[in-house]
Amino acid sequence: MDSYSGNEIMVDLHVHTTCSDGTDKPEEVVKLASLKGLSLISITDHDTVSGLESAVNAGKVYGVEVIPGIEVTADTSMLPASAEFHVLGYFINPDSPSILELVDFFSKSREERNRILIERLGEEGFNITYDELEKLFGKNFGKPNIVTMLVKKQMVSSRKKAFALLRRLKVKRRKLDYREIFRLIKEAGGIPVLAHPCTLKLGCSGLYEFVSQLKREGLEGIEVIHSEHTPSMVVNFKEMAKELGLYTTGGSDYHGYNKPDIDIGMLKIKMKDLNFGVFAGV
After folding, report:
1. CA pair distance 123, 119, nearest whole angstrom
2. How confident is the model over 250-265, as pLDDT tens digits?
């Protein structure tokens, strides 16, 4: 892990693969990271760790360190209606009972949501099936994959309109309380980090108060650099993390062509841009 201490190395700590709703296989993502000049990445697929072994092995071939990670969605009942509350777990043991419990819960929740969503789409005249989506994207497919299918079949003219359609249907999935997520990540030897805090939809003071509460209840870091964050957000999130004693991470949130405007490594994040020193000794 000593290689993490190089201040100038390029990193991307928020990356998705075909194991969730990305479009590149884990080994393809690692190869692409190498071509982009990245030395350290984290695979943070939604609700699954199935791509980690392939990614770590590919990293040994292409000279890229791969941090085992995951991204899961917490309950948002205490937040504004449009909020999304995602938690990243870094340095997890993918074989631990806690991670297997986390993956099992969210895999079942995702499948339930997807089946209902596809049924609702059918009622609206958009005839796609669960089986064809699973065959093309795998069992753990997500909304970006459904959007891709709708556009590919020319049922909707753009990805923007397809996402708007899915939002209008308002099909939610079961989620865990964030305290339970923090607990399971920590039991797996991991570090819980708040992903893209801008999606919590809280004002500056409200966000500071909420993150302070999260810190008291087990949060250890904030993703300060993200493709949806403006430069002023980055400054504010870094200052918040410093005041609260939280680690800082950053990543593109790469999904391949499911998010065509986001490229791996596009944010040019260097280790020196992050308070990432804690990981040097892990």
Report:
1. 6
2. 999 999 988 999 999 9
